[in-house]
Specification:
The chain is of the alpha+beta class and about 160 residues long. The protein has two domains: about 40 residues, no CATH class; about 80 residues. The chain is about 40% helix and about 10% strand. The chain has two helices and seven strands.
Length: about 160
């Protein structure tokens, strides 16, 4: 197999890092491939030790841990559950005069205690997500993936 006449056509060329991944060298001029030069020494590149819980930057792309994505999904589900409980609590307020006071107090206490539980869960999930690399939107305070250019909730540019 003949070497390419340009790094731009080569599968081993990383344009983001300007490196030849096969030879492990920095490419100063992509139109003059280092593989076309005589006696190019390849450099062994050791992979860094990376924690699975942190975001890792590989080949110029941000790779997010699966654990962070799962936490953010749980956070969204819990926030949706909280919103449903708030709707139910508001509906209960509308029917306050139409139901017996004892039933209203019991239901109101149940909803408020469950709402407090949900709030605690949301705070724990937010804390865990930020520890795993999640970023808080300065505008709407939602937790988003690192490397996002815009907040998916409010659309604010980050």
């Amino acid at each position: 197999m003949l070497p390419p006449r340009s790094c731009l056509n080569c599968i081993f060329y990383s344009s983001l890092r300007r490196r030849c991944l096969k030879l492990g060298v920095i490419v100063e001029d992509p139109l003059n491939p280092p593989c076309m030069k005589e006696k190019v020494k390849s450099v062994k590149i050791e992979k860094p030790q990376v924690s699975l819980k942190k975001e890792v930057e590989m080949r110029g792309e941000t790779v997010i841990s699966q654990q962070l994505i799962e936490i953010l999904k749980k956070l969204d589900e819990t926030i949706n559950t909280k919103n449903e409980f708030i709707k139910n609590l508001n509906a209960l307020e509308e029917f306050k005069e139409k139901i017996p006071p004892e039933l209203y107090r019991k239901l109101s206490q149940d909803y408020n205690s469950k709402l407090a539980e949900i709030e605690k869960t949301i705070e724990k999930l937010r804390l865990t997500a930020t520890k795993l690399g999640g970023i808080e939107c300065p505008s709407c305070k939602s937790i988003i993936l690192p490397g996002s250019k815009y907040c998916p909730k409010c659309g604010k540019k980050l």
